[in-house]
């Protein structure tokens, strides 16, 4: 009897098929990951745009037209990492549900706990940062925040929020809190532009006085060049433009943003536009130009490529502390024609 031949793949043919599948996966998977990240980037920009509209409406409700909604702790002396990091996010957002680590074994929980809710180990609850006390959150919700929503308001969450990078050049947040989502620890994925002059003792002492040279504390209707003036944004960008604790020209901090692009993150500008923005080192002016601009110091003009953090020629704003000596007979920016508009909620 003649044996029937049954067709089958040889080992070499199987290996070829596996190699082809592996090659296709290596080509397609990065594209799919890129498409997912592009979608997250679009959600983030939509969040920022919506927050910009809400902040314009918020400013219009008050005679002092606050460009940045003022949290109670933003206008008084507080501990170093509170005014250095937490207060940048407190203008809006939710209650933190994870401890904001200021050291490996210690930190703050930015929330008001229920009576039967246990306090996390080595953490100090700070009820004044609860969602109900964040001014823009209170405004958006009309003060009606349910217990279910006080830790979940998606307008304030970037879907790619991975927190501050774990890098020695990052000095805007404590290293112990690196790579922990800002939304979870600080209640907000987006920090405000609170560029200012701060007077403090050596080390990690709290500021004894602060004077804004950016949107913080200024009437929104007085601001100029608003399409280039940064309002709020993803926090790494503010560190990408250079460390604060260095002297001389600060170069860019060469890290990736939340959307996997080096030196690029999403920003909201005062005109309400939101866009991905490249971080660049500070643009410095020569002494003659600074003299013509009538500024006290060209270092205080915070320009970074095509964007700016300073409000020049609009005067700065007193935030807190005794600035009488600086303001006496002031004839140069930022002290000339300064504003004193802020009020704590």
Topology:
Layout: H1 11-60, H2 80-89, E1 100-103, E2 106-109, E3 123-125, H3 135-141, H4 182-185, E4 191-192, E5 196-200, E6 207-212, E7 230-233, H5 235-240, E8 264-269, E9 274-278, H6 287-293, E10 303-304, E11 307-308, E12 317-320, H7 324-327
Parallel strand pairs: 2-3
Antiparallel strand pairs: 1-2, 4-7, 5-6, 6-12, 7-8, 8-9, 10-11
What does the model show?
The longest helix is centred in the first third of the chain and has 50 residues, at 11-60. The model has no long low-confidence stretch (mean pLDDT 88). With 345 residues, the chain is α+β, with helices and mostly antiparallel strands. The strands form four sheets. Strands 4-7-8-9 form a four-stranded antiparallel beta sheet. It has a three-stranded mixed beta sheet with strand order 1-2-3, with no helix packed on it. It has helices spanning 11-60, 80-89, 135-141, 182-185, 235-240, 287-293, 324-327, and strands at residues 100-103, 106-109, 123-125, 191-192, 196-200, 207-212, 230-233, 264-269, 274-278, 303-304, 307-308, 317-320.
